[in-house]
Amino acid sequence: MSSSLEPLTHQPKNHPEWNESYYLCFSDRKNQLSGMTRLGFKPNKGEAMAFFLLFLRDGSVAGYQTVEAIKGYPARLKAGGMVHEIQPEGSCRYRFDGKMAVTKDPESFPKAREHPELISKVLPVRMDLRFTPLNQTYEYSEHMTPESLELGRKSGDEHWEQIALMNGEIALGDEVCILDNVMGQRDHTHGVRDWTGVGNWLYYVVWFNTELAVNPAAIVADDGRISTGGFLFKNGRNIPIKSMKIIGQKFRDGILPVSSELQLEDADKVMHILKGKAGPVVPLPFKDEHGNVSVLAQSFGSFELDGVQGGYGGFETLRVVQRSTRSTCGNDALI
Known about the structure:
Largest sheet: 8 strands, antiparallel, barrel
CATH superfamily: AttH-like domain
Helix content: under 10%
Distance between the termini: 39 Å
CATH architecture: Beta Barrel
Number of helices: 1
Strand content: over 45%
Oligomer: single chain
Structural class: mainly beta
Number of domains: 1
CATH topology: AttH-like fold
Number of strands: 20
């Protein structure tokens, strides 16, 4: 479909942690292969970051991360072996060429750098995927309440989402996986993201088919207030999610997601119940200079919407693990 595209880059604000990031997730049920990649740029710090996870059919995970120096704003959306090419008409191409470390237990991946014995193998990986949009780009903040915008300000200023069909191939060593009309979704955000100060959050990217998907997102403040964002995609329409009630969330050790149940109210004043169960989890710790620690959990899960089963997609949470009395936006991933 023809799709209007948001501006790809924005003028950085005067904050060292201002960043612009580009995210993609996809899930191929035929090949039992799911992946997520993020490019992040901090021009005020002269820093570019690439992150890439592949959840493999045997339950293991392959991971890649790099941080490199840049001067000013990048001419291309590229860091290390990862390239995101986003065209003005809305089509995209995602390419990767590099080596990925595989750990049999996804939860051990963050420890692999300090404990290389956890790495079962290193795979040469090539990816070349094409992104064909299914919906018009949806921008969160245009549809959020003033209270939700204020609560969510530490997660960024603007946030775009778009659903698509993915086609192409991923080569894992000698094995080549052909992706044929696989569901995927991109995300584009800019602003200051305070990983350790934003609070707890959830972010699900859920697909049922090419006519039904849901993307709820929430930040939960210490006092229980919720910053609600996201949308329901149904029969060609983007329907904003106006409010959310978290009926329940289960975590292992208080950190790693197990399941959840949400009540969502959309802009048509229709209530929905979304239930989800997380799959294997990769926990990504963030720590700032004052000792605040949060854990971003990346997973793919199964979902049910209003009794309709068969939903699948990204299951992401951020949990505060340790909080000091001081606060800062300067934080780094401990991976």
